[in-house]
Amino acid sequence: MRVLVVKDYEAQCRAGADLVEEAVRRRPDCRLGLATGSSPLGLYRELIRRCREEGLDFSRTRTVNLDEYVGLAPEHPQSYRTFMDQQFFDQINIDKRSTYVPRGDRETEESLAEFRAVLDQGSTAVQILGLGADGHIGFNEPGETLHARAHVETLDESTIRANSRFFENRDQVPRRALTMGMGEIMAAERLLLLISGAGKEEAARRLLLEDLVTPRWPVTFLRLHRDATVLLTRDLAERIGYRENIM
Ligand code: GLP
């Protein structure tokens, strides 16, 4: 696991964009694994800028997203499909038919079968990940066990609370979500974890300052990946007492 401590959020976005750009330039028809949430927003903004100003070409790129809320149709304002369209896809030259976000509004078994089939269709060059305060990646919530494959997850109270900022109130946050499983995340050729936002200290500490791999902190599985990059800002590194080259 490569850990890069960068100056600030802007530097984190640029470093993340470098990694994605490298994959797209090397293989223009590669598949990218994408995430929602606040953490990757600046990374998407930087990729949009590079597409517009520097000719970074997404016309042959394919994407698959980590997760989607159960019960929200793609056109729902808070769906992850809407998020991806607005924050990224509609602003770059990607063919929208090559982008996949799992469907939260269908019979769940049908959606899961489709999601798994898409994941099986090829490999992901770079999987972008954010981090939940409880250590989740995608929507793989901590517990005694984790799922290898795409499944439906019941969201933890802390996740519902954290994500309620995108909804009018807490009651509107869906209680369940479809998510890629840990095995599908780990199968990506490269992982890129962006740690940013409030309340991530404990999860970051578990990942960066300990050696345990535990389903209680799903993000710790990144240590088992052969090409995982973690990007965090200097202030977070200082807050948790992480010194470069600790591991
Ligand atoms: C949600 C998403 C995760 C994301 C996490 C952190 O729960 N399902 O994929 O990584 O939130 O989000 P943020 O970056 O907004 O803190």
Keywords:
alpha/beta, Rossmann fold, 7-stranded parallel sheet, 8 helices, 17% strand, binds 2-amino-2-deoxy-6-O-phosphono-alpha-D-glucopyranose
Describe it.
The protein is of the alpha/beta class. The protein has one domain (2-239): Rossmann fold. It has eight helices and ten strands. It has helices at residues 9-26, 41-54, 80-87, 108-120, 157-163, 182-186, 201-208, 234-240; strands spanning 2-6, 31-34, 62-65, 67-69, 99-100, 126-129, 151-154, 176-179, 190-195, 228-233. The strands form two sheets. It has a seven-stranded parallel sheet. A three-stranded antiparallel sheet has the order 4-8-7, with helices on one face. Helix 2 links the parallel strand 2 and strand 3. Helix 1 packs across helix 2 (41-54). The radius of gyration is 17 Å and the shape is globular. The N and C termini lie close together (9 Å). The model has no long low-confidence stretch (mean pLDDT 96). The structure holds 2-amino-2-deoxy-6-O-phosphono-alpha-D-glucopyranose. The site of 2-amino-2-deoxy-6-O-phosphono-alpha-D-glucopyranose has 15 residues, from helix 5.
Largest beta-sheet details: 7 strands, parallel
Kindly provide the name of the CATH class.
Answer: Alpha Beta
Secondary structure tally, helices: 8
In CATH terms, what is the architecture?
3-Layer(aba) Sandwich
Structural classification = alpha/beta
Given as residue ranges, the uncertain stretches (5+ residues, pLDDT < 50) are none
Shape: globular
For this structure, the CATH topology is Rossmann fold
Q: Rg to the nearest angstrom?
A: 17 Å
